[in-house]
Design goal:
Elements: E1 8-10, E2 21-25, E3 32-41, E4 48-53, E5 61-62, E6 67-68, H1 88-94, E7 97-98, E8 107-108, E9 111-112, E10 125-135, E11 142-148, E12 158-167, E13 176-177, E14 183-184
Antiparallel strand pairs: 1-12, 2-11, 3-10, 3-12, 4-5, 4-6, 4-11, 7-10, 8-9, 13-14
Length: 187
C-alpha cells in the first residue's frame, strides 16, 4: 500500500553486493526551513540509516534523528488499542512519527482512504521525522540516506515511498495520500 501504488525497493547493507548509500535530487525548494519526513513501508529486515542534505557539498546538513526502517508507527507510543483515539495523531507527531497514508476513516471526494486506523497492519506505513533542514538557496538539492551499522545489515530490503519537505510552520500531518494518488486534506 504505497502512494500511487509505487515504491522504491532499496537493497542496502554493509556487504559489497548492496548499496551503502543512495542519493536523490529534490524538486525545486524555496529558501527556508523544512521538516524532513521519510515515509516508508516498515520491514523487520530494513536498515538503520542517517539522512543528510547536500552531503559533500556547500551547505551540507546531517539530520539528527536516525531512520530505522524496522520501526512501525507503534514505536511512537501509540498502540493498536489507542490508534483510533483522537489523541493518537498528536502523540505520534510529538514523538516524531506520523501516518501519511489516508485512513479508512478519511474521505476525499468519492475516494475513501485505505490504511486501517486500528487492527492488523494499521502501523506499517510509517512517516518518520529525521530533522529540520535550513535550505539557504532556492534550488534543487540532494538528499542522501546512508546505511549505518546496527540494523539488519544485508538481510532484507528497505521500502521507501516518499520524502516530505514541509515548511516548519505548515501542518505536518496533512495532506495524506492514497495508492490511487489522491490527496486527502485535513477534514
Amino acid at each position: 500500500m504505497f502512494f500511487g501504488g509505487d515504491l522504491l525497493t532499496l537493497s542496502m547493507g554493509p556487504n559489497t553486493a548492496r548499496a551503502q548509500w543512495i542519493e536523490f535530487r529534490t524538486p525545486m525548494l524555496v529558501k527556508g526551513r523544512y521538516k524532513i519526513w521519510i515515509c516508508y513501508g516498515q520491514n523487520g529486515n530494513g536498515v538503520l540509516g542517517q539522512v543528510g542534505v547536500d552531503v559533500g557539498r556547500t551547505g551540507e546538513q546531517i539530520m539528527p534523528t536516525l531512520i530505522d526502517f524496522r520501526q512501525s508507527l507503534s514505536t511512537s507510543g501509540v498502540t493498536t488499542a489507542t490508534s483510533s483515539l483522537p489523541s493518537a495523531d498528536p502523540l505520534m507527531l510529538t514523538n516524531g512519527f506520523k501516518r501519511y497514508i489516508a485512513t479508512t476513516a478519511e474521505v476525499s471526494g468519492t475516494v475513501k482512504g485505505e490504511q486501517q486506523i486500528t487492527g492488523t497492519g494499521w502501523d506499517t506505513m510509517t512517516g518518520r521525522l529525521v530533522g529540520t533542514a535550513d535550505i539557504q538557496t532556492t534550488d534543487r538539492h540532494w538528499v542522501r540516506i546512508t546505511m549505518l551499522p546496527g540494523g539488519r545489515e544485508g538481510s532484507g530490503n528497505t521500502y521507501l515511498d516518499m520524502i516530505h519537505f514541509i515548511p516548519i510552520d505548515d501542518d505536518q500531518n496533512y495532506p495524506r495520500f492514497s495508492t490511487s494518488g489522491t490527496l486527502f486534506k485535513r477534514p
